[in-house]
Every structure is written in structure tokens, then in C-alpha cells.
Amino acid sequence: MSNYENAIALMQERFSKDSLVAVATKDGERLYNRMVDAYYHNGAFYVTTHALSSKMKQIEANEEVAICAVDWFSGHGIGRNIGWVLEPKNAEIRLKLREAFSAWYDHANNEQDKNSCILEIKLTDGVLIKDHGAIRYQIDFANNAALVSENWGEFL
Q1: Distance between CA 54 and CA 149 in Å, rounded?
Q2: Looking at the predicted structure, is the pLDDT value of residue 153 above 70?
Q3: What is the largest CA-CA distance in the chain?
Q4: Full DSSP string of 59-100
Q5: Alpha carbons 145 and 147: distance in angstroms, whole number
């Protein structure tokens, strides 16, 4: 397997479930950061949220976000509201989210509210750490490429 395939397999293993991540946005010159439950699928993290929340307003004004997962991943992406959770185009990802977040989904989301939406964070780049730093992947999601390092800061 290529470095990229190994990195993506590790991303799927770690984050294709309810995963605690920090999402950073920018409102003018001020930075904001918050913890959210997210689910990884095909190069993106997905979050159920409310369209009128501060994070969604900030992403509407500036789509660039930073993300940091508790399980050794940090990176950047493009955030966007992909719409109401019950829109037919969101059926597949909604089912994945309902399953991943099954312990709390119905308590935290009012699907009848048209502002109950899905935030997609399409990853552009990131660093994924394995074995407590013994292996680091520098991932370029846009070009399906990854460099690997067994030394801090040195990528082959």
C-alpha cells in the first residue's frame, strides 16, 4: 500500500465513528475553537449542528477551518453547510451520522427544524500520528498523496 492509502486506512479506522474533534473558525480577526462530535468519511469530517450557530455563521463568512482530533490528527479543511439533515441528498450521510451518534443523536438534534443541518469539513491537508509519534503522515487530501516520517519534522 502507498503512504496515502496507509494514512487513509488509519483515518477510517480511527475516525469513522463518533470522534471528539476541535473545530477552529475565524470571525474577522478573532479565532474561535470548539469541541464537536464528528464522523470521518471519504476525506471529510461531518458534524450535525444548527445553521444559525456561531460556527456556521463564521464558516459562511470564511470557509477555511482548522481541525484537531483527540486521536492524533490535526489539519485544515473547507467547511460548508450541506443542508438540512432530512434533505434527500443527505440521506446516506445522515444514516451514517445517526448510527455513529446513536447514543445521543435524537436528544441533541431536532430533525424537524429546517436549521438542523450537516457541516461538512472537506480536508485539504493534515498530519496524522501513529504509535505515539514513531510514524507521522503528512497528508495532502487534495492530491491523494502523503509523506511519511519516522523522525520529527523530517518527511520522506
Answers
A1: 37
A2: no
A3: 50
A4: HHH--EEEEEETTTEEEEEEEEEEEETTSGGGHHHHHHHHHH
A5: 7
Q: What does the mean pLDDT of the chain come to?
A: 95
Q: Which grid cell is 41?
A: 468519511
Residue 144 vs residues 51, 67, 126, 127, 149: alpha-carbon distances, Å: 31, 19, 12, 14, 17
CA gap 130, 104 in Å, rounded:
29
Mean pLDDT of 46-66: 98
CB-based contacts of 18, cutoff 8 Å, min separation 6: 37, 39, 100, 101, 103
Rounded CA-CA distance 47/135 in Å is 28
As a whole number, mean pLDDT of residues 61-75 equals: 96
145 forms beta bridges with: 140
Q: For residue 128, give Cα distances in angstroms to 15, 106, 107, 132, 138.
A: 11, 31, 32, 10, 7
pLDDT tier at 152 (50, 70, 90 boundaries)? Answer: low
